[in-house]
Queue: 4 jobs
Job 1
Amino acid sequence: RETLQALQATLPVLLDTAPDSIVVVNSDGHIVLANARTEEMFGYRQEELLGQPIEILLPERFRKIHPQHHEGYFAAPRTRLMGTGLDLIGQRKDGSEFPVDITLGPLKTEQGLLVISVVRDITERKQAEDALRKSEEKYRTIIQSIEDGYYEVDIAGNFTFHNDSLCRILGYPPDELMGMNNQQYADAETSQQVFQAFNQVFRTGQPRQEFNWQIIRKDGTKRFVDTSIHLIRDAASKPIGFRGIVRDITDRKRAEEALRESEERFRSMFEATAIGVAVADMNGHLVESNRRLQEMLGYSGEELHRMAFTEFTHPEDASADMELYKELIAGERDHYQMEKRYIRKDGRVVWGRLTVSLMRNAGNEPHFTIGMVEDITERKQAEEAVRQSEAEYRSLIQGAAYGIYRSTTEGKFLDVNPALVAMLGYDSEAELLAANLATEIYRDPGERARIVAQHLERWDGLEVEWKRKDGTPITVRLSGRAVRDAQGKLTYFEGIAENITEQRLLEAQLRQAQKMEAVGRLAGGVAHDFNNLLMVMRGYGELLLNQLDANDPLRRNAEEIQKAAERATALTQQLLAFSRKQVLQPKVLDLNAVVTEVEKMLRRLIGEDIELTAVLDLALGRVKADPGQIEQIILNLAVNARDAMPQGGRLTLKTANVTLDQAYVRQHLGATPGPYVLLAVSDTGVGMDAETRSHIFEPFFTTKGAGKGTGLGLSTVYGIVKQSGGTIWVESAPGRGTTFEIYLPLVEEATANGELHPALPPPTPGGTETILVVEDEMSVRKLAAEFLGSNGYRVLEAQDGAEALQVCEEHRAPIHLLLTDVVMPGMSGRELAVRLVGARPEMKVIYVSGYTDDAIVQHGVREEGTVFLQKPFSLDALARTVREALDSKGKK
């Protein structure tokens, strides 16, 4: 009792205000004092605790060790704390448990040594620690799951933590990367940059969000990374390391480099073009211009880039130009073209033919416009001189070779000259004046309506489609102007019409002839060597078959070799026939049959690493087209597909019956609704972006490297499809391959049945005459000599013209037949024949060649009465031709 009173007198503040439980225990381990917080924390009243052993506040599992504490505390009393931060478990009166932190200290009194226990409820702290632990685990899980690399390094740059993604980026295993320095996977120069970047963050304390540098992986490969750097501080704000994110940006860097190179190429072409080019924003202000435009307008690039195009447009042309420009940016048209006047910086007026196109961004939103301006000032000045001359020499109109007319805006003729009457096939000027230009002269009345709607003041070289009185279509080049009254109201049009139908036909024929000449030369060169090889294979195959009995086990192998040689011969003939194609020869076709036939050639063309699949509609309708041109379409598209799949892939040819509805037509300009036959050519190649797709049908546009493509393949395909009355569209995206869809109109006519080639007549007998065989290809020469010798003939051989002359010089006996190749080094077969027949008039001549007809004609061989064998030929054909030549009379 006296002890308790002494304590109450000594510790009044502690008992009243302490936030923790305070329990005083005597040397027997019994409680002699407990404050109010003890009651709240453990649920006992003070009177219930007094005199109780201290173990009453602990769970049973802790009580058995408590006597040891008693012995330790009281056996050697000390005046300092006996224990701090002891984490135990407290137990309330109701039996519930909670974590506590206990601090023990001795209290020396006159009555003896006491122990003061300060007990703190650490439930919230434990919960916070548990939440922190879970948060750290979640943080570690998140760090490990991100694609980017995460790192933590000490102040020296040595790794203290990293995720698996960082190992993947750097190419090191986790155990090897831990402890490495972050400068060990870079070259000396880059390491210095890394050190400076981390040092800057250390000095300033400011994080660095982007630091691009090149790493060297463990395997020696190099990658580009983007690194963020943040300073790590301890509780006292002392810098202890760095942390950040490492992102592999190699692909982005390569894409940026490719974009930069592309932009440089574009800039080079942009500046080098002979036509003025300008790029403007959606408000018409110039943001780019090339030197040609700057020279044309007399402004520097800096001056132009502060101007809108209306500032250097002639006031009389500004309104029409602005109206078209508004329609363009509103999406009502993709481009527009007009001839307009420009005012140079020095005040002079120049004319330009302007073409403006709308360019869209990746989201298909209008982004900017690009204008191309061709300087036509000289031409306009010439036209003006012509118009002035026409006013002075009005009387010459009636005798002009070109058609001249005036017409109202509605198309009624006001005046015509005799040349126009003759051009259109009318009987008199009066009869033509009664006709309407818009509805009776234009093949498509809408064409004139569209021209009038453009509000052109002048036009030159405008090509339109007209028709004569009898309906015959003609192509006309128009030049003219709009005539206005004093108030500026349009009163009529004046026009000059030139019939260029024949000119266009001749141009088409010339282009075709040039193409055929080139292809013919190529096919002829191939045929010469290829046909010699086929000649040997087929010839020795025939000899082998003739020597083998019907039951000989090798006969089947020889027959298969012969069949293969015959198929190769057929392929050569197809190539030669293809090279001779000229204008379209439309026939009613089964497109499946064409695809099946071309498929045989494609399998040799595209290579073994490309899988070729044909998906054909067995109920496919018929189309009317030139089969050779359809083959050319498939070949061109297949070659492009092959080039788009350098690592191999899949090429699919598909046919189907389809019907194009109004919804499709609205989305595909140029298409008309109705039934069609679809030919689709799909590949799994690299694909194309929108910009490339917008140019693929333009002549000479190619994505291939220098010397690897002419850029005419797809423009040829486009022309063939359009000329066949069809339409073509392409679907493609980078990395998703390409599909060309060709729609040809379906026809109801039936196809004509083909006929098999008639069988060759049986071989003819041989003979005993002497034959001189002249052939520069030794294998072909030996084959012919061996075969003719086996048929009873005496055979002399020579490898060229010079040796043939020498053989004839040495052989004084008669030589009855000269069998000679046409194209040989040194002396042609024709030259050799002329010299030998001149000396031996009785000698007959047979010419042999693998070249096309055009090449043979150039050597003067295909004259009437000459005997000619086209390589490769069968030995039977050789025997019959030799016999017929020897037995013939008349011209050798």
Job 2
Amino acid sequence: AAGGVDDAPRGTTPGEIHLLEAAGIAAEVRGVAQRIRSLLDGGVVPERIGVVARGLGAHGARIRDDFFRLGIPFSALAVASAPDGAGRRVDAIVAMLERGGDTAIDRWLTALDSRCVTDALLSDVRLALHALGVSRLSAAATFDVDQRLGGKSSYALPVRHGLSLVEDEDGELRPRADRRHVRARALRAIAERAASACARLTTWPDAATLAEHIAHAEALLAQSLGLREDDPDAAPLFAVLAQLGDELPMRVTMDAAGFRLLLRDALAPLRTRPLGGAGAGVQVLDATQARARTFEHLFVIGLCRDVFPRIVTEDPLLPDALRRRLVAGGTGVLPDLPLKLGGLDEERYLFAQLVSASPIVSLSWPIVDDDGTDRAPSTLVERLRLEGRAAKIETLPALWSRAAASGPRPAAEHLVLAGLHAGRAAVETVMPIAVAEVMACGAAAATRDVATDAPRAEAVARSRLTALGLLDPRGEARNRLGPGLGFVGERGDGDLREAGVAVTTLERMARCPWQAFLSRVLHVEPAPDALAELPAVDALRLGRALHATIEVIVEGDRSEDAHSLGDAIRRGSRRVPWPSDANLRDIIQCQSQNVLAGAGIFAPGLARALAERTEPLVRRVFEQVWQPAGGEAALFGAELEGVLRLGDAGGAGHEIRFRADLAEESAQGPRLVDLKAGRPITDAKTVHTRAKHLLRAVARGTHLQAAIYARAAGGSGAYLHADPARAGEQAMFAIDAGDGAAMEVLERSVRTLFEAWDRGSFVPRLVLPEGAKDHASPCKHCEVIEACTQGDTGARYRMERWEKARDDAAGPAAAALAAARAVFGMPAAGGTGGASDEEGSP
């Protein structure tokens, strides 16, 4: 049971008590901060105001931010905030000492001095190590840079410098998005540092004198991490080691684990920094620090059940009943042994002291946590209400409610309130003031002249308002799409969108135009994370291993780029024998290793697993291509590049680039084959139904390669699904060049996609067309979804209204909107019995 104010120490007089509840921790802190701001404006001395919590963990950061925003001076010297850069380095060093070679690579790079990397940014090195599959310190220590990079002088990162114009062979300027690179020597320097750190941690003596342990720690900091004693950021680390030598006998012997514990405790003060202040201002304290202190106004915050009073439980191994017998009235075996449940009396005493520490006390609590969990007020508060000391509960306004709009606030917060409650006109009025305020704060911090930023602040405010109008249009514009939903403008000279594109880009356009724009035009890629998930044998790696194996069987170990399809057909076919079983397994194993190495994975066991999964697919290709020819197939080649030119609606035409995985000779002419490791287009059994489903996939634009192959070669094009577990007996799906209906559907699909490509209509497929299946959604496995409006209910609502409406705007935007609607309205992606994605395609 909780005690009330009658538990207060003698001589104290309880004062006026106010009870405050809030809709959350943020609203609670802001409500308290506004009341303190009013007290300060009324002349109350800041040092006579106290803010106390049982523990300030969840409230600390908000107190710091809200007090700063409202101009409230405060001090919280004994309260720690989140670690800064120096604190994170200390955490990383402690982790190194405890985990050794198993330390995560990000932790080790945090501890490393950035000046150790002279030829690259440390962030680029971090990204390169993740892309190369280096996740632990021990892996970095054994990292063979030359082997991983194949002798190259640099490594291409999965990020770009940006867009630039580069002169091509014909002297024309063409746009290009070049990758950023990390030099090999920078990676070698990192590997050497990692090897030094691992060696230092591995050779650390199990038992040594304190002087030897300190010498090893100093060598780790200076030699392995590159930290210098004269560096202000690293000096406190060396000072801690020197202090250990001054306080303890240097000749005392201890084991390595004991020294690590000793050093961890000595470094603990460096891991965090005070929340703020230098002693003056409003006093921010926890309950134990506030003992025996008095205030004119006191705010006790966070008074939730199980927080204040804290949960007190008995020791399961030494319960209070046994402790009482051991104490035995002071004459027992352990007369000073405390009772665990005595902590409840301590909690009541602390609360009674706080309630009696000021003539005006405000007690507050949130009714929900940050994660939305309901919280009940403290039992100590309920006891006060039962005694009639404070029956009325005042509700603090929600953080962004109309009631909270009064009083002093930064202009940035007034901008939020204007957007929530006052409309677009108020936002346009407050936006320039808010931008100028934010820039002025930054200018003052950098000791620059604030007045010089006024024109720039106005320009930034105008650009923000323009972007707001595009992302959240008002009036009639709400029923139409705009630049915020994929309209990037028509293709012009020097545009990244070339006139000729790969057929796989067109197929991705059909699935989701915005995804195609991000990944194939801007070349946006997800940042790799070596610790995000374990490497696996997926359909993509299976497909790459399959393609590489068939290419070696057909072409041998050629070093040049892929041959031209036209040259190969002019040279004629050649008989290609199937290799022996032993030779085949060697080829598969070698190519499996190469595929994984290209992904930064060097695991022999995984390479064997990939080879074993790839072999049935390769033998399936043998059954479909080599076996009918008696073991020697008549082939033009493998991985052959070709170009097909098709006219668009205006007759100008576009070039479609493609690569045929396999080109074989047949009675009807060349047959170009696209090898697939993913699920087939359909699981239909009859030839007629399968052909109908394939034609429907061409109409959708999601499967154009076979039709493009047939049109370009004048023979036939086919998909060969090599995974028996997925495709069953139906392995081959073919289209003939003489199929007039198929060629007509191909031209219609290509014209529709190129029209959207040229008009800049890259509308994200936030909603599927009517009749589409859920598995057809391109969002399920999208790697660039973070750069999309997927999940924005407003954008989705606009898309749904636009998809149902038929009142596109007139003028220049009409053609772009019509092109987007044509792509969006292509035959529904579903009903084929298993629409396929790009699984297995490299």
Job 3
Amino acid sequence: MAGHFSYTSKLPTISDFDLEAYILGFSLDRLVPGVDNIRHDVLISPTFVTATRKIVTQLVKRHAGIEKRKPNRQNISWAKEVESYKQLYKEIMRDALNKAKGLREPQVECLAQAAVVKLLLGEIRSQYDHLVGSLKKTARKSDLALHNDSDEAPKLKNKLQLILQGREALLQRVGEEICGFWIEMERKEIQQMREAIFGNRSTFFVDLLGTAMLHLENAESELFVLLAYDVALGRRIEDPDRYDRLLYFIRRLIGTIDAADANGNRLPVDKRATPDMDGPEPDEEEQKAYARKIEAILLRFENMDRLFNWQRTKAELQQLRKKRADAKEISRLKRRVKNQKLLLNYFYKHFVKKGLIGRISAAYEMQPEYLEYCPPLNPQQIMQYLALPKARRAVKHRLKRLSTVYGRPFSLSPLNKKIKSMEQITTAKRKAYLIRFLNAFAHYHRDVSNCDIIKEGIQRVQIATEEKIVTLSRENNTLYEFLLPNEQESSQKPIINHVVIKADVRGSTDLTHRMIERGLNPASYFSLNFFDPISEILNEYDAAKVFIEGDAVILSIFERADTPSDWYGVARACGLAINMLIIIQRYNEKSRKHELPVLELGVGISYLEKAPTFLFDGNNRIMISSAINHADRLSSCSKTMRSALAKKKGPFRLYVFQSRSDEEIAATADDLSIRYNVNGIELNAQGFEKLSKEIDLKMLPGNFNNSKDQTYTLYLGKFPTKSGRYQRLIIREAQIPVVEPTSLKPIRFTSRKYYEVCTNPSLYKWVRKAES
């Protein structure tokens, strides 16, 4: 036996391929059960439920062929209705994501996904049954009507019979059409929001919505599997190509590629446990972990091409050679071609040994002739006729018996020709069929797995419709509600934390003096170039003015209880600050043309994890918060540092230094740092921590422009503004250096850090290029 596998002693490992793991991203195991202590209670927007019922009813009638429509006018109305329904879906799923964000529990969104799927499947079946019941009632009335000489009753009965026979296909078409609406919203709106909040890039839900299998009660139909997935599977216990047996076999084959001994050393192939050999079993935890790894590889069905399709890689290689591409890239693809061939040969030999290659070849060779025989036969019987001589007599007898039932003879001549042509199939073609089969099987397996997961999730969902259940569950804090904005409680919630943004004009005293000397109006200049333009963008970031000084503006953003859709206070403060600087630069260009002074700002952002206090001067509310004082410090700029760093060039506009002793710093809560902040934005450390909870911040690999500076780290994230537009943020985290007080020469770096919200356009171009 060892000799049989010695040829593959240099088999590649899984790590030799650019494989991607499939991320499921669906679970409900951390959520609180509802009033029955078994299922999760869910209240879905009544408006959305009604809209779903209405659109399902229309589609059931349309696909049943009984809807009476006037082409032009009603098509326009239908398009508007569909667009309105898509927006309802978007708002429901955004509410689910916001609630998941508020609870810091992604499974809340999973619950919403399971709930809307359960709602849809239930409504489709309910409206189909309602239509059939209505048609039966009409048919009975037509039969009982006296002196009924019309042929309406037979037509109605015939239509009813067709609808009953085509039930499965009708349910599938209606479900797929509505899921298509949902997929559009998921891709355009929801996925981007999910990634911004949780960084979750799972395609599970879109993959699920895109499979017809979700809507079928008999998804194991051989004809359906063959037509939808291009794969033929056995159904009998003894069939080697049954789904469960094939799944185990393929998992084991993939698993043997990277088998290792107890010391972690990779074993030669002839010493590994193969699907046909006994070997030492790893411990239970290792076995489970490795099984999860193999399953994640198999579920990402595109991996099958990466593992086996050497011809596609060869085509890519030829294109690179024509373009005279980098030698390293060409070498990498050459290694991949070699590895893919080795792995394909290894799998092929095992499939041959299992008696599967003949069946797989027959399944693809019988196309498209098999449709001529289905029904009365099923695809598996035709495949067996082609691949198994013992099965041919039984198939002949069956066709002969059924020819009288179907009223026509079934000639076996096309199949017999296929048998002869199959004898001439080359090994290369059989291997090509194997690659095609592995792709198709992995795709089918992914959809089976996803449907099993959602069906299990659906069983754990109780859509609350009775007021008694809704009230009881809500009072016990076990009700998950997914509602439209207008269905949410309208009362203003209490403030739970806040952010203060201070923008301070650099050198405003000198600027004002120079303008007055020239006979210019500094008040109107500040108003038109600074205060007014900034006021126009406050709503986009849900910000408000606290107060305005002659050369500075202080803004605030509040976060309120139970409003997770607005829990982006720090992110929006950063985005607002960036836009403030962009606006100032735009007006500066205009000022330069007219030889007017230009403005330079320093911006400080301070987050405080508690509500501010307020006092009133008559009807005027005045906010009191230590965040105001801190934002003032962050926006400041030392004259000494401004003079020392005035000529410093680079992508960053903020530098923070420590000139006091460690003892002085530790003895006070005050910020004793000195700063260079000219057109820069500083965020306090608590704000950075809060930002990392609001959105998914990813550390960027490497430094900008391949800089050798190792004293900073860049983070990238994106957030939604109030209108739903997404904006990127780049945050620079840097260590605070200690400098000599008089000469400002650096001495050492401290463990303390500061955070700059970056505004340099080149940085953002660099990031976009890296992402593409």
Job 4
Amino acid sequence: MSDALQRIEAWFSGSGFTPFDFQREAWRASRAGEQGLIHAPTGTGKTFAALFGPLSIALDAPREPAPEPDDETVRGPRLLWITPVRALANDLVRALAKPVQDLEPDWRVEARTGDVSASVKQRQKRRPPEVLVTTPESLTLMLTWDNWREHFDRLDAVVVDEWHELLGSKRGVQLELALARLRGARPTLSTWGVSATIGNLEAALKILVGTAPKRPARVHSAPYPKELAIETLLPPNEGRLPFGGHLGLDLLGGVLERIAGLGAGRSALLFTNTRAQAERWFQELLAARPDWAGELGLHHGSLEGGVRRFVEQRLAAGTLRACVATSSLDLGVDFQSVDLVVQIGSPKGTARLLQRAGRSGHRPGEVSRVLGVPTNALEVLEFAAARRALEQRRLEQRASGGLALDVLCQHLVTCSMGRGFQADELLAEVRTTHAFRRLSDAQWRFAMDFVTFGGATLQAYDRYARVADRRGRWRIRNARCARQHRLSIGTITSDFQVQVAFQRGRSLGTVEENFAARLTAGDRFQFAGRVLEFVGLRDLRCIVCVPKKAKAGVHTVPRWMGGRMPLSSELAATVLELLDGAAAGLFDGPELRYLRPLLELQQRQSGLPSSAELLIESTETDQGHHVFCYPLAGRHAHEGLSTLVAWRLARETPLSLATYCNDHGFQISCRKPLGLEAADWRQLLSVQDLERDLLKALGGFELARRRFRSVARVAGLIFEGFPGVPRTAKSLHQSSALLFDTLQAHEPEHLLLAQAKHEVLEAELEIERLSNALERIAAQPLRVRSTDRLTPFGVSLWAEQIRERMTTESFSDRFDAMVAELERAARGAAPAT
């Protein structure tokens, strides 16, 4: 054993731990010149498995002499650590700093993200730390420096933390290109990925290391799972859960009991699926236990960075009793005080639940404890399915981000700023990435034309010419182009945000402009854990104050786009397995025993959705005629499927139809009976001409026009403005719509238009999953049933319809009446849920 490894073993021993075999295996592989993907449960030491390989190599190398005081030579980082979220960067610096400084005191560990001050960034540029923690966007910004090659000329290894979070997204594609750039300058660079929640490990590894790795690569997995204890919170015997809804406040009392039962200095982390839900739960917890004021925290991505960091510090110190959070605290943040994770609402995916579970018991040998809080009756089934899937280690697979030409165009401008590039060399480098391994010559020419003169349609406009040929090297055209590009780097796009701020200037965070635009003076809404009163919209700031008098009633909660998460394919398949078992009389586990009256009622009235056949129900209410179909393909696929079926129906006979959906199925409503037989459904659910019909059914141009704004922003067609003077959402929308219409009219085959349409189908409607569902249905018998009343599964879909049509009060009354009718139908058995 080398001297460095002996020192590392001694460091572990002095800390009271013994290294795991998979950690030692990763260290040996790194020292042998390999790279790879480390896959192990959260809290078992993945970070140290990735760190000590490169660190041990440095420890065995001859020590470099300290630089002279007047030495201006840049000595770049030795280890680059990539994190997907800024909140994780500070935590990683704390986790890495102690072992690094204990073993190599001359090394510094620092973060470089958007939260780091300009003065620190300037110092880092002159004297970089040996271990630099950064994000994909900050790394790309560094590649625009003229001296980026010198800056990274000592770089030995790159570690990509939480690789699953980047994999399959444009951010992942952006990182693939950045890594290819670094490997071009440092051919022997070692790349390591770290994750706990990837189902297709070998594919994830290939995407990480690229198509032409200079080092051997393999997966290093822990041979044992971390122990999970997953419990679903259920109402008392006399209680029941609603059939619809997504807040879960019916079980607030049980959650309060579990939090109160934690020991001193112990915390609960409550995860919600949306920011609006997090705001409501924080307020309800505070209202129920005002004596906990000061011991409750709120954390989500729209809150001001200082507010988030304050909550993180208090969690780390163990001074919070509970914190309500969204996915902003999902990733790798190590809070030793957290003993319990509460998942409010279905996790919608096994990997997401496993990731969040790892936030509790975040220590080797500790049990990760999760309390599931279903927000409606059918989510009880999803929690049972999630536990079974995790027991069988069935995790969702992650796909590559694909050939995103808008990201490639952005990368070309980035490379033109780092002393420029030669086209043939850069093309070969780009093709070493998994995302662009099949990049054609025509697609490359399109990207080059796009950044040099805007392409065929836009070449008359000088502002689209950003890169020019300078004596055989392609360089950025001018300083204005360079500045705008640096401000636009990244692939994260969202609806336009406005600052929420008090009249005297203190900012609380951001809400989307379309929410703020609907407010009038005096309106009240919940944000940042408090009730605020809207004063006015000034200079793109939502000005608020604290109300002087309390006002009864439910206050508005901001809604952010992108909050809906569809049921994953893996979890949906497990739900069908449980339903198949219930149809055969198997009700194992507390969740299924609780749901037994409801499932037996569904079986008597119509049948249970099944993997063996497709269940289709029709019934009449005073709202009209309703058809319910249960493919269990997830909300996004059902949105596309319901609209497709309605369009195909109306194509044959003019009809006024309405569609509604959830994760389990979709509903089509009409004023008169549709009279559909099994043969009719075969045609309506045919996979033939799927993409063509789907685009027509959904008004493909309008959907693509909206998606094009994101594509155009990433590609550099649209500039969102300088700091302090951003363009309004209306202006950006008008610019992108004009560009879309111009290209559609004069260059309909434009590759960015094609990409926007493809992304609509892939990202918004999950066309691959929809297609798979239709192929599965084609091989299944159809059970078409007419019922004299709504079934339990039908009620959950019917709730989607009346919620959109009625006020809160009338919805509640109507819904209670429908549930009472269901319970009367179930008399003679145990009380219906």
